[in-house]
Design goal:
The chain is of the alpha/beta class. About 30% of the residues lie in helices and about 20% in strands. Strands 2, 3, 4, 7, 8 and 9 form a 6-stranded parallel beta sheet that branches. It has a 3-stranded antiparallel beta sheet with strand order 1-12-13. Strands 10-11-14 form a 3-stranded antiparallel beta sheet, with no helix packed on it.
Length: about 260
């Protein structure tokens, strides 16, 4: 039996961070994530960069190098209170700006104030996106059922408690445990709050069993896994994607299937 319960290099744990609004504290937050080898996704509003030259936008992009820049609507609107054409404009105008900042296509978004619905998620998909993050904390470590309505594990205020729970059970999970932390860097207003958050990062960095990834990296990997073409007897697999994926065979063997290759399982 083949299972898609492994991340890159056979790891079975994943941690990601997601921060909204492009606050001034983002640079310090990025530096902390880098210190502990973590990856974050930063959801920005294009309106904050009105009048910026292409060179200035590129300078903004340098703040987030090694992490992901993602949409948050152009003017931090509330999509559920708008007609569909306005939502499309908000998303596409945000893309136009952020793609100059990042230098790559935007493929995801966080919903401002969690303003989302099935209809808004479909509009997001129609605009070329493949994930949308809500503000509804699950307090669990499960993979999302729907990446277009992706509920995080918790806000960073609750991260110390849940990080401890996560690490204490690091070897006992049966399903894919994804720890997804979200927030706004502007919420770090005191040195004590920064130190508490750094303690979370330090705790999560205590093992080599975790894949630290951006939101888009996770979605791309899962999509690539599910694009595998597997023989009826599950002895051969072809990977048509551009990235390597790993699978578990018969509950014991972890097998890499490189990009564009056919592998005997």
């Amino acid at each position: 039996m083949i299972k898609f319960n492994v991340f890159p290099n056979g790891k079975k744990r994943c941690v990601t961070f997601s921060y909204d609004d492009g606050c001034d504290n983002d640079a310090r937050l990025v530096a902390l994530l880098n210190k502990y080898g973590m990856k974050g996704t930063f959801h920005l509003n294009g309106i904050n960069y009105r009048g910026y030259s292409d060179e200035q936008l590129q300078e903004v992009g340098k703040i987030y190098e090694g992490h992901e820049v993602s949409c948050h609507t152009y003017s931090h609107c509330y999509p559920t209170l708008m007609p569909v054409q306005s939502v499309i404009r908000e998303i596409m105008d945000d893309r136009f700006v952020l793609e100059k900042i990042a230098g790559y296509p935007m493929k995801g978004m966080s919903y401002p104030a969690g303003s989302c619905s099935d209809a808004v998620a479909q509009t997001l998909r129609d605009c070329g996106m493949y994930y949308g993050r809500t503000t509804k904390s699950t307090r669990d470590f499960l993979m999302p059922r729907n990446f277009m309505l992706w509920h995080p594990t918790c806000h960073h205020n609750d991260a110390p408690e849940l990080a401890e729970k996560y690490m204490e059970r690091i070897d006992s999970f049966v399903t894919w445990p994804l720890f997804y932390i979200w927030g706004h860097s502007i919420e770090f207003r005191t040195e004590e709050q920064w130190q508490t958050f750094e303690g979370v990062l330090k705790r999560l960095a205590e093992t080599d069993k975790i894949w630290y990834a951006t939101n888009a990296q996770i979605v791309r990997y899962v999509q690539a896994q599910h694009s595998l073409e597997i023989s009826a007897d599950e002895t051969v697999a072809y990977n048509p994607s551009a990235i390597s994926v790993w699978v578990e065979k018969d509950g014991k063997n972890i097998i890499e299937i490189p990009a564009g290759q056919t592998v005997k399982l």
